TrEMBL record:
One of its GO terms (molecular function) is sugar-phosphatase activity. It comes from Rhizobium multihospitium. This is Sugar-phosphatase. Pfam families: Hydrolase (PF00702). PANTHER family: FRUCTOSE-1-PHOSPHATE PHOSPHATASE, GLYCEROL-1-PHOSPHATE PHOSPHOHYDROLASE 1-RELATED. It comes from the Bacteria.
């Protein structure tokens, strides 16, 4: 693994597509909304992952709607539907192996939705959870990752960010952190200059004497 030659102060994880898979429910809810609003669902689904819903809807420039109300309805629909939400392979064990003060979940989802999905997937609850409403500028701005690093008292340059979506990867790059791409939910290969792993099944972590974290991969 290209990142196994250094240690990190903390690991910052995106949520959807990185530690859990919620694509089925997200696509059900957004497709229903798009059809109701006369929006091309296929084109829309290509843009929603990793971004705040309010930013996605506002960018569409639809007339006669209140974006905030649309987000409220979408969020409630996603909260009410957790069918198919499941952990990325190996994620639960990997997260449980980390010191609680050395990792965070950083998501564009609203906090209430994040809580429901984390519980549905059986993901360990993080001491630090940065949700969409915690920052003014969502991904691809780096604000959310910068905030998570500050809350963990770690320099962002010493953090490793686990991401799956282009908007999140762009945010991670802008933050100055190192990036590891998780490809478990990718239907087609993502072109990226960053190292990539499918899931956490063969990934291990060593906790150094100073508390820093070092990744390694179990050989086949």
């Amino acid at each position: 693994m290209p990142l196994d030659d250094r240690s990190f102060g903390a690991f910052l994880f995106d949520m959807d597509g990185t530690v859990l898979n919620s694509i089925a429910v997200a696509e059900r809810v957004w497709t229903a909304w798009a059809e109701k609003r006369g929006v091309d669902a296929i084109a829309l689904l290509a843009t929603v992952h990793g971004r705040k819903a309010i930013e996605t809807i506002t960018r569409l420039g639809l007339s006669g709607i209140d974006p905030a109300e649309e987000v409220r309805l979408l969020t409630q629909a996603e909260i009410d539907d957790v069918a198919g939400v499941e952990p990325i392979v190996g994620a639960i064990g990997f997260l449980k192996s980390l010191p609680s003060d050395r990792w965070a979940i950083v998501t564009s989802a609203p906090r209430e939705l994040a809580k429901v999905r984390i519980a549905a997937a059986g993901i360990p609850w993080p001491e630090v959870l940065i949700a969409g409403e915690d920052v003014q500028n969502g991904k691809p701005a780096p604000d959310c990752f910068m905030l998570a690093a500050r809350m963990l008292s770690q320099p962002i340059e010493e953090c490793l960010i686990f991401e799956d979506a282009p908007a999140g990867i762009e945010a991670a790059e802008a933050s100055g952190a190192s990036v590891l791409v998780i490809s478990a939910t990718h239907r087609t290969p993502l072109s990226t200059r960053h190292p990539s792993i499918e899931d956490y099944d063969r990934v291990n972590v060593t906790i150094n004497a100073d508390g820093s974290l070092r990744l390694s991969a179990t050989p086949d």
